[in-house]
Amino acid sequence: MTAANISLTSPSSNNTVAAHTLFVCKTCASVWQDGKRVGESGGQKLLREIQETAESWELKDDFPIQEVECMSACSRSCVVAFASAGKLTYLFGDLPTENCAEAILECASKYYSRTDGVLPWSERPEPLKNGILARIPTLS
Question: Where are the transmembrane segments (predicted)?
């Protein structure tokens, strides 16, 4: 069975929902010196803020946060993505490293509640309105 065919039962409801993941690039906005990363990257700061904010998020058990080494959007850092089987995948960039976690989790909640994953521009929190890098179709 492939990951695309796996579904989970949400502990917070009686509905069957597809597995969701919030990907966060931890390499974004890194400073490099002699081929090595120096200090904490912007992506690491954003990841930490999202993880801390998610501790009280109603979907923390249904929408895991997964750190990613690189999402290849370096010129548009910091980057996150929402993905789920049977839904569009969204990639957002140009996100601030501070005071953005609540907006990301709010948008993830909207994504979670939509059967197709569609996130209309007008319904996205402000930091995610202009930061859209890709809307990837579902596999058929």
Answer: none
